[in-house]
Design brief:
By secondary structure, the chain is α/β, with parallel strands linked by helices. It is built from seven helices and seven strands, in the order H-E-E-H-E-E-H-H-H-E-H-E-E-H. The strands form two sheets. It has a four-stranded mixed beta sheet. Strands 2-3-4 form a three-stranded mixed beta sheet. The radius of gyration is 17 Å and the shape is elongated. The structure holds adenosine monophosphate (AMP). Adenosine monophosphate binds next to strand 3, strand 7 and helix 7. It comes from Melghiribacillus thermohalophilus. This is CBS domain protein. InterPro entries: CBS_CbpB, CBS_dom, CBS_dom_sf, Diverse_CBS-Domain. Keywords: CBS domain.
Length: about 140
């Protein structure tokens, strides 16, 4: 991550604040649901990005989406974890942001989402911007002013 120590909030870009792709846990669209649930439980994250084999952003998948999918009338139908794949369950209708976008766009984006995926013009995945990072910057700004 680039240093943001002396940069004014409005001059910061998403690139300076994002967690880069190589540090982000993700799953692929053709993975079985069981694999996605393992990644989510072991990482402790409630949701992670879904990519294709070429590292293109496809959507996100969460623990709640998986649990909803396997919920039967009276029990969790855990056999569905190996029958279904990530693409059957993931949410494709999620906003994205670009590396060169400004802090203020990032701030607006994380009002309704705990994290936003950063993609390039070909939908290649660059990383994520989290609400935590945005709040940390605002907190630092308010206490240094
Ligand atoms: P945080 O603001 O750090 O609590 O992160 C909010 C959400 O962003 C987490 O619940 C995850 O869904 C996602 N997230 C944060 N860091 C990562 C990461 N390194 N890999 C995958 N997802 C992440």
């Amino acid at each position: 991550m680039l240093s943001v120590q002396n940069t004014e909030l409005q001059d910061m870009t998403v690139e300076q604040l994002m967690i880069p792709a190589e540090k982000v846990a993700h799953v692929q669209r053709q993975n079985p649901l069981e694999h996605a649930l393992l990644v989510l439980v072991k990482s402790g994250y409630s949701a992670v990005p879904v990519l294709d084999a070429s590292f293109r952003f496809q959507g996100i998948i969460s623990k709640t989406m998986i649990l909803d999918h396997i919920l039967g009338i009276e029990r969790f139908e855990v056999e569905k974890l190996s029958a279904a794949t990530v693409k059957d369950v993931m949410d494709q209708d999620v906003p994205t942001i670009r590396k060169k976008d400004h802090f203020t766009k990032g701030l607006k984006s994380v009002i309704n989402h705990p994290f936003i995926c950063v993609v390039d013009e070909n939908d290649l995945f660059d990383g994520i911007l989290t609400r935590r990072v945005i709040l940390k910057q605002i907190n630092r700004y308010l206490h240094e002013k």
